[in-house]
Amino acid sequence: MKQKITLKHIARELEVSISTVSKALKNSDEISDDTKEKVQAFAKLYNYKPNNIAVSLKNKRTKNIGVVIPDIVHHFFTTVFRGIEKYANEQGYNVIICVSDESFDKEVINMEMLNNGSIDGFIMSLSAETQQKNDITHLKQVVDQGTPLVLFDRVTDELECDKVILNDQEIAYEATKKLLKEGRKRIALATTESYFNVSEKRADGYRQALNEYGMEVDNDLVLVLPYNDIQESMIEDFYDRAKVDAILSVNEIFAIQCISVAKKRGMKIPEDISFIGFTDGLLSRYSNPTLTVVAQHGVKMGEIAAKMLIDRVESEAEGSIEDTYRTEIVQATILDRESTIN
Amino acid sequence: MKQKITLKHIARELEVSISTVSKALKNSDEISDDTKEKVQAFAKLYNYKPNNIAVSLKNKRTKNIGVVIPDIVHHFFTTVFRGIEKYANEQGYNVIICVSDESFDKEVINMEMLNNGSIDGFIMSLSAETQQKNDITHLKQVVDQGTPLVLFDRVTDELECDKVILNDQEIAYEATKKLLKEGRKRIALATTESYFNVSEKRADGYRQALNEYGMEVDNDLVLVLPYNDIQESMIEDFYDRAKVDAILSVNEIFAIQCISVAKKRGMKIPEDISFIGFTDGLLSRYSNPTLTVVAQHGVKMGEIAAKMLIDRVESEAEGSIEDTYRTEIVQATILDRESTIN
DNA sequence: TGAGGTATCGAAAACGGTTTCGTGTTAATA
DNA sequence: TATTAACACGAAACCGTTTTCGATACCTCA
Fold it and tell me: How many CA atoms lie within 13 A of B143 on its CB side?
């Protein structure tokens, strides 16, 4: 096991000072070409790499960004993360990831773990519990301390910071209109508990479209499903009590399960009933019939979030403080597949 | 924006030395109870948290572990990562993740980025390209430098280090035997190019079972599919040229696609043909019929990998060098679902 | 009374870099 | 020849901790 080589070693070996070595490696013009060559050759030979930790301590910049997300075994978050990681790496940043597991406490603990110099800024999406409790003192604290923060997807209006969101309401409106244009009369909404910010906005878009077509929003047509542990009977009951000819689902799984039950009941898709779901994951692509979806462009969202964060980090480093926070909106698109009529 | 408070600030304010503050906060018995109380109260009041970077520089330990995986939008890797993150966090470690994107170059660059003091050790799974080229000099370099390294799933025999793998061959043997016991006579193997270590081992298990039942391994029954961009016609052609009554697939997607084509051809599942796939992801659970799978227990694999790494990191820190590398084997299990006869 | 012990604290080195400023040498200029 | 500027380099401070090694003051006991 070879010892990691440091400036000190090089300096001793070449009988020059540490400062000379440091400067020579940076090609400073204070140093003669002769010594530069010597030092650089030696450094290359022994594969010298500056110690990141030492550099970070000196610069007060780590080139690490912290990402806190509710779940990692989850297609949407994964794609966003992909975008973050991609952009960050291109800019020479590393990404430290923590999973809050939809838990408020874990979210708080994770952020405290990271916010002691380990990272230059946060990108995060709120946990379910945090949205439910609506307690964001930990976020405020981070922002107060001057740590840049970018929220994506599951955001909150109570905090002033940079944000990246989907045009949820608008695209839900578009999706619903697409179903209406198919001639659907009894369009259902499959959704989660309402404390999810995004679900609420999607529901708004759904209602807006119905209203525009002069339709009443029938509460019997709203199917609220639990986040986990969905029983088929819930969907059966729903089909029993509500005549339905289309379903807009706030996620992929709900849609797939509704399709599955519909098929068992002998309904023809998309003739008798059509489906649109949010999230362009594997399920939608490989289901039978394939599912028409709202593509959320997670990678793009992640890239934008990373860019916003890094821009802010670097501008703060240069002392030019921009104090206006921005909210970027990613335009979702509808991907037509077999579960709707085209 | 409040300045981050340091030992120096506390020391100045309380008119004691930095060392006293440091010791007081650690409850050292060199310090009187009086001063301890004063210092601790002040620290709590101003929410003092030690700067991680400075601590890392001093201890030469970062409490960060680096994870390099080929893909993040991928169920198996995601679950493994979940296990890593879970165990690591419990032990007070953070996880820095880099995605190699199945590219050799990115893998090398990522590892170089991290291996300059940013992390205490690596957990990784080889990229496709790395396996293909069979070039692992970058890994050897890391190990030579004394950085602990744990390989999982996509490992290599050419490197001595800790490893965590699945009992791929054995479970493929079991799965194939399960199909044989169903009375299947023409069992196909849907697989990737052979340079994937794990695919090769699964193929071995498949052959072993066939041999045990006195069957020839018919090369017409091996369907090699590309990693991306699978055309349905490839599967159509396969069904055309080979009479098949069961398929063992090295992943989920191949199985799902084979099922889809089989259904279109009017084959009854599992009566006419049965399926087993590797990876217990969403697709298998929500497909129609649901897919019998080999569960790889990614979370457990991740936890084991993290434990192996952290154990080694900490034992090295204590100077007690264990020089025997271990290979842990995770036992896969078969989850019976609708695509096979039970 | 003086040696030794204990309690409490501070100075300083160290981790591995970056950066400012000063200094000695040489060469150009008045 | 004396002054000065350019050149090449080193000393030292600094980032925020931890930790070793005194140093002082007070106390105890022979």
Answer: 17
Q: Are A189 and A222 in contact (CB under 8 A)?
A: yes
Cβ atoms within 10 Å of B26's Cβ, excluding its own: 11
Residues of A in contact with B94 (CB under 8 A): 96, 98, 113-114, 118
CB-CB under 8 Å, B286 with A145: no
Distance CA A90, CA A87 (A): 5
Residues of A in contact with B64 (CB under 8 A): 96, 118
B18 touches strand C (CB under 7 A): yes
Q: Which of B286, B290, B301, B337 to mutate to test the interface with A (most CBs of A within 10 A)?
A: B286
What's the alpha-carbon Rg for chain A, to the nearest Å? Answer: 26
Judging by DSSP bridges, how do beta strands B274-278 and B222-224 pair with one another?
A: unpaired
**Using only C-alpha atoms, what is the Rg of chain B?**
26
Residues 6+ apart with CB under 8 A from B330: B164, B165, B166, B167, B296, B297, B300, B301, B304
What is the residue whose two structure tokens read 């296990």?
A: B83
Does any strand D atom come closer than 7 Å to the Cβ of B52? no
Instruction: Tell me which residue has tokens 């960050």.
Output: A88
Instruction: Tell me the per-residue pLDDT of A163-217, one tens digit each, with 9 for 90 and over.
Output: 999 999 999 999 999 999 999 999 999 999 767 889 999 999 999 999 999 998 8
Rounded Cα gap, residues B119 and B61, in angstroms: 8
Peptide bond into A270 cis (omega under 30): yes
* A319's tokens: 């002392």
**CA–CA gap between residue A145 and residue A148 (Å, rounded):** 9
Token pair 């190990």 is found at B143
- As averages over each run of 10 residues, the pLDDT of chain B (342 residues) reads 86 96 96 96 97 96 97 97 98 97 97 95 97 96 94 96 98 98 96 84 96 92 89 94 95 96 95 97 95 98 98 86 89 98 86
Helical residues (DSSP H) of chain B, grouped into ranges: 7-14, 18-25, 33-45, 52-59, 75-90, 104-114, 128-133, 137-144, 168-181, 197-212, 232-241, 252-264, 282-286, 298-317
Q: Which domains does chain B have, with CATH numbers?
A: 7-50 (no CATH), 62-165+299-332 (3.40.50.2300), 168-295 (3.40.50.2300)
Q: Give chain A's residues under pLDDT 70.
A: 1-2, 194, 321
| A4, closest nucleotide (Cα–C1') | C16
Beta bridge partners of A247: A188, A275
Q: What's CA B191's distance to the chain center, in Å?
A: 20
**How many CB atoms are located within 10 Å of the residue A74 CB?**
18
State the pLDDT at residue A244: 96
Give the length of chain A: 342
What CA–CA distances, in Å, run from A11 to A7, A17, A26, A54, B36? Answer: 6, 5, 15, 17, 42
Token pair listed for A320? 């030019």
| Bases of chain C within 7 A of a CB of the protein | 7-12, 14-21
Q: Tokens 């408070």 label which residue? A: B5
Please count the CA atoms within 13 angstroms of the CA of A170 that sit on its side-chain side. 9
DSSP state for residue B331 in the 8-state scheme: P
In sequence order, which ranges of chain A are alpha helices (DSSP H)?
7-14, 18-25, 33-45, 52-59, 75-90, 104-114, 128-133, 137-144, 168-181, 197-212, 232-241, 252-264, 282-286, 298-317
Task: Tell me the torsion sign for CA atoms B142, B144, B148, B153.
Answer: positive
The pTM of the whole model exceeds 0.85: yes
Q: Looking at this protein, which amino acid is placed at residue B239?
A: Y
For strand A94-99 and strand A246-249, is the pairing parallel, antiparallel, or unpaired?
A: unpaired
